Amino acid sequence: MKKIGIIGGGAAGFFAAINIAQQGIKAEITILERSKEVLQKVKISGGGRCNITHACYDVEQLTKNYPRGQKALRGPFNKFQPRDTIDWFGRQGIKIVEEADGRMFPSSNDSQTVIDCFVRLCEKWKIEILTQTRVTQITKLNSGWELDSSLGTFNFDILIVAGGSSEGLWSILEKQGLKIIPPVPSLFSCNIKDEILNGLAGISIPNVLVNVEGRKHISSGPCVITHWGLSGPAFLKLSAWEARFFHEKQYKLCLEVNWLGLAKNRETFLQELVELKSENAKKKVLKDPKYGLPARLWAALVASVGIEENENWADLKKVKLTALAQVLSACKLETQGKTTNKDEFVTCGGVDLGEIDFRTMEVKQHQTMYIIGEILDIDAVTGGFNFQAAWTEAWIVAQSIKEKEEEQKELEK
Fold it and tell me: Based on the number of CB atoms within 10 Å of its own CB, is 311 exposed (0-12), middle (13-18) or buried (19 or more)?
């Protein structure tokens, strides 16, 4: 009977272990987790609800949510995508519900439902779970792998590395000849101290467009003004796509925010403001919010371009209308740093994707070693996409091990 070791008791590690067992592979499966508790990110994901996946069933569209890994994941997603994830959880008795923004959660709205399911299945399939077991060294043997750990030495025929973002594991894998891309934070909100935002904490805007000044990528989505700056899906997505640029600039750069979420240039907005001036001539600009913007935000933006409280629309000269068009369409805000979004923290960097055969998730230079999950240089925008990559990669490992076993049986006939 084969011995399969899995480093990492997170989403990818558990899903791999369970799917291997469900394939009917006769093996002793052991999960080694360095922390006291397993599935910690599953527990806190989605505010404790567990954002299992996203309702995006077109593979090409799905891969566009991965700043790193877009090309590599195309093949895997053609084998196991969100629809397959929903079916898999459904067979385990967990109904997945879609929300208006496409995020998908267990109908219980409780991440503990997923954790209990995984633990129950591990008990059913006699999968051993060892916590507080830190791997300190991996040694390749003639047949299999030897692991030194805080709990002693283990020997496995097959090794699956699913340890999440771990500098210790990256260092160990580097000693096995694997290339590691230096890690940097990927999902974070922006620290901004600007007079425009003073007193606006708690305001939400349904849709904004945001980009780094001088950069092409534009992110869209809801925005939340916080006591430290700006957050929400629009900024989290931007942080993912521009993660390395943010890091390079030490998180001090200029953002351009289109508060209206409309893909129009300043000249178009200026023309619209000229029309609004004509239509609302006798109204106080400061107290006459347009474009559905929250009143306090509108007042702050209007005041920021020097429009006085008692000025009517009819009073506005072209210079002020132009300035207002600018601050609505490309409001420049300087960032002073980042704030980790603790519920969804993801790292950009890890094992170089060129080291992996994505048809099997096996390391190209080391047969019987598989690498999956956040330890790879793959990350996604917020919304369940990171978990989907983990489920897909883990499922492919199980299929690969099953296929190898069947090939071996054929050779032995």
Answer: middle
Secondary structure of 99-150 as H, E, C letters: CCCCEEEECCCCHHHHHHHHHHHHHHCCCEEECCCCEEEEEECCCCEEEEEC
Portions of the chain given CATH number 3.50.50.60: 2-185+346-412
The CA distance from 373 to 11, in Å, is 8
CA distance 233 to 91: 31
Confidence category of residue 93, pLDDT binned at 50, 70, 90: very high
Q: How is 234-254 classified by DSSP, letter by letter?
A: HHHHHHHHTHHHHHHTTT--E
Element (H, E) at 366: strand 366-371
- Look at residue 347 and tell me whether its pLDDT is greater than 90: no
The per-residue pLDDT for 263 is 86
> Rounded to 5 degrees, what are φ and ψ at 203?
-75, 135
Asked if residue 383 lies in contact with residue 190, where contact means CB atoms within 8 angstroms, the answer is no
Nearest to 266 by CA among 335, 332, 207, 313: 332
Burial class of residue 380, CB neighbours in 10 A (0-12, 13-18, 19+): buried
Residue 257: name the closest of 212, 291, 227 by CA.
Answer: 212
Question: Superfamily for 2-185+346-412?
Answer: FAD/NAD(P)-binding domain (3.50.50.60)
Is 132 within 8 Å of 150 (Cβ atoms)?
A: yes
| Whole-number Å distance between alpha carbons of 21 and 155 | 19
Only one residue has tokens 């003639």, namely 142
Return d(Cα 388, Cα 260) in angstroms, integer. Answer: 31
Mean pLDDT in residue range 376-386: 94
Q: What is the pLDDT of residues 216-266, one digit of tens each?
A: 999 999 999 999 999 999 999 999 999 999 999 999 999 999 999 998 888
Side chain identity at 230, as an amino acid letter?
L
The residue behind tokens 């200026």 is 270
Whether the pLDDT of residue 101 is over 70: the answer is yes
- Rounded to the nearest 5°, which phi and psi values hold at 59? -60, -40
| pLDDT above 50: residue 400 | yes
Nearest Cα residue to 378 out of 75, 138, 66: 66
Q: What size, in residues, is the chain?
A: 413
- Per-residue pLDDT tens digits for 25-44: 999 999 999 999 999 999 99
Task: Give the pTM.
Answer: 0.89
